[in-house]
Amino acid sequence: xxxxxxxxxxxxxxxxxxxxxxxxxxxxxxxxxxxxxxxxxxxxxxxxxxxxxxxxxxxxxxxxxxxxxxxxxxxxxxxxxxxxxxxxxxxxxxxxxxxxxxxxxxxxxxxxxxxxxxxxxxxxxxxxxxxxxxxxxxxxxxxxxxxxxxxxxxxxxxxxxxxxxxxxxxxxxxxxxxxxxxxxxxxxxxxxxxxxxxxxxxxxxxxxxxxxxxxxxxxxxxxxxxxxxxxxxxxxxxxxxxxxxxxxxxxxxxxxxxxxxxxxxxxxxxx
Length: 271
Fold this sequence. Notes:
Number of helices: 13
Radius of gyration: 19 Å
Oligomer: single chain
Structural class: alpha+beta
Low-confidence stretches: none
Largest sheet: 3 strands, antiparallel
């Protein structure tokens, strides 16, 4: 769905909810956290070429925000990166990678729901995680948190690409998160167990069908209308799971099915 094909009413709703207006632009970490808690979840560095809310777009405060080639010299990109680092350090909002290795912020209230869809229980770890991911997890459960280089050495993973894939795997399964990003004396991530910061949320058991519905609700409330494949692309859900979530909203009169894969927030709920 092209931006030009979305109605003015829906675009205006998204402008307000996703902070795509100059007077709503995000300029500091606390405002970013309020945005994430309002929306439920939000991408980090995506621009107008990808669907869904984005911290970068909210920092720019405009609908057509486009990431430049040289992000190091771009003040909006730098500010987004600075805010992201501070939000990660504060640890009040979940941050990690889902399917497709795209980073996403998730409000605490939705962590149990995303975990119900993407997470793994301890019993599933030995059959579902790669050997490298299991080695990293074993080290972190002993040491609690470690910088990238130290964690690679302690887990015995010599190849950088193997380590990166394993870390991404652990993030997607809600096992490991970055606790901090350090730039001096050199750039590195500090990794820790997700349960260390979000123990209560990860302990909550949620039925998968209910989880899909609440993830769909959060997106539709902010988007006003969701188009075919949009929810799946934004969240990393499969298309069937995204469809189940949206149908759950129709069943309780929160949304109306407009066409195949197209759902609209019911009248009275649009701001």
